[in-house]
UniProtKB/TrEMBL annotation:
UniProt-listed PANTHER family: LYSOPHOSPHOLIPASE-RELATED (PTHR10655), PHOSPHOLIPASE_CARBOXYLESTERASE SUPERFAMILY (AFU_ORTHOLOGUE AFUA_5G09340) (PTHR10655:SF67)
Domain of life, per lineage: Eukaryota
Protein name per Swiss-Prot or TrEMBL: Phospholipase
One cellular-component annotation, GO: cytoplasm
Organism the protein comes from: Schizosaccharomyces cryophilus (strain OY26 / ATCC MYA-4695 / CBS 11777 / NBRC 106824 / NRRL Y48691)
Family: Belongs to the AB hydrolase superfamily. AB hydrolase 2 family.
Domain Phospholipase/carboxylesterase/thioesterase: start-end pairs: 13-228
GO terms of molecular function: carboxylic ester hydrolase activity; palmitoyl-(protein) hydrolase activity
Length: 239
């Protein structure tokens, strides 16, 4: 059993996909609105990275709608809102999510993992929750980065006086399909480095849907990871 299983708070649910080697990097995965931790846990098994363990978290609230999936349907915010088209809104109160992540990260760091080697892989509402929570924790921890597929900052959030030294990578299927220029400017006022990556397609979601797209993500995150070189005692950056 991975030591990361013991890091999960009592009010959190998730799956740990451990590294085959010693863990130096931890990727916290946060699914989209109405999904569960199962889908991202499977994605983690399909993209093993050196010295990297994954924690696929389940949303902290059950969605009060039943889509008939065996794992249930979950969300990261306390309340549910619909837009004028009748679609579910991602923006919500993420207070409980922040509390869970704060305790989870404290436990991970207490086990010897540097906060600069903690990353977030998130989609949709999970992306919004991750970006919000990272911004709230950035005065305590300097994270390795946020990889957000279709996520953006909550509009109700107050922006910091100066950007935090954290890298954010925004993936979307087409330019402005998930966030507009104003929302991008808010991210740049919150985080020092913001990079947008577009798949240039119209179908499916903002998540990678082909080996080429997954390779772009793997290539991007690999530049941030640390791997252990047996020739040296310390971990070195993967290049």
């Amino acid at each position: 059993m991975s030591f990361l299983t013991d890091c999960l708070p009592s009010n959190a649910h998730g799956q740990v996909i451990p590294a085959k080697e010693q863990t130096y990097n931890v990727v916290i995965m946060m699914h989209g609105l109405g999904d569960s931790e199962q889908s991202f846990a499977q994605a983690a098994r399909n993209i093993p990275l050196p010295n990297t363990s994954y924690i696929s978290l389940r949303g902290v609230y059950r969605l009060p709608l039943d889509f008939g999936t065996p794992e249930g349907n979950w969300m990261w915010g306390e309340d549910v809102h619909f837009d004028m088209k009748g679609d579910l809104e991602s923006e919500a109160d993420f207070s409980k999510c922040l509390s869970v992540l704060r305790e989870l990260i404290r436990r991970i760091v207490d086990r010897g993992i540097l906060s600069t080697r903690i990353f977030f892989f998130s989609f949709g509402q999970g992306g919004m929750a991750a970006l919000y929570c990272v911004s709230q924790l950035a005065s305590t921890y300097q994270f390795g980065g946020v990889f957000s597929f279709g996520g953006k900052l909550p509009l109700a959030m107050t922006l910091p006086s100066s950007p935090f030294p954290i890298s954010v990578y925004l993936f979307e299927k087409r330019k402005n399909s998930s966030l507009d220029d104003y929302e991008e400017s808010r991210l740049k006022r919150t985080f020092r480095s913001v990079q947008r990556i577009c798949w240039n397609r119209d179908e499916k979601t903002d998540m990678p849907s082909s080996p080429r797209e997954w390779y772009v993500f793997i290539e991007t995150i690999s530049k941030k990871l640390y791997v252990h070189n047996r020739l040296y005692e310390d971990a070195i950056q993967l290049s």
